[in-house]
Amino acid sequence: ADPEAEPPLSMMGTAAVEDIIDFSPGAFVQTGRPLDFALQGEGFFVVEGPNGPLYTRNGVFTLDAEGQLVTMDGLPVSGGNGPIRLPPETVTHELKVTTDGRLLVGNLEVGALEIVTFEKPDQLLPVGVSLFQAPEDVTPTQSEAVVINGSHEKSNVSPVLELVRMIEGMRQYEAASNALKSITESVQQNVRPAGG
Question: Given this model, what pLDDT does residue 43 score?
Fold first, then answer.
């Protein structure tokens, strides 16, 4: 080993950490809105993005002027055979959704939510706040997730837990900073210029 070589970052007290997205489910909130959907189990709604399919667990949807089911950002929700478009006379409170994602107005099926899953969802790449894109070599499969109508999934992040973690991190930083300051002062006191 080369004695002049730089030590690895992990030996110097720092190390690069890979970003990991936690896809564990959050709590469900009943909204009563007929266009709010939550997924119980592993799965993602498919959304038609400008450059191909995008995936989300955020099932808070609305209708655009043409009666097309869209995300709050206006992206069409995919029904497997293209965007889901409700008949013009549809009243949203009459819309029923089965647990497998079929949309019914009365007894007439008007579309079906495309719901997929991934063997390794951690390979998905974030696009914005709640949308994800699959790398070209990653293919989704049909999900067995259950659709819950009139509800949406809350974030799986606990603000209290994250605040505690932030405080712990600040304390560790302060302790390391104080230790470095003490070491620096000690070295300055013990190292004197020769021949002074």
Answer: 92
3-class SS of residue 94: helix
Residue 114: exposure state from Cβ atoms within 10 A (0-12, 13-18, ≥19): buried
Q: Give the number of residues written for the chain.
A: 196
Contact criterion met (CB below 8 Å) for 41 and 33: no
CA distance 134 to 121: 9
Side chain identity, residue 186: S
**What pLDDT shows up at residue 155?**
64
Hey, what's the torsion of the CAs at 177, 183, 189, 192, to 10 degrees? -110
Q: How far is 151 from 29, CA to CA, in rounded Å?
A: 5
DSSP 8-state symbol, 9: G
State pTM to two decimals: 0.69
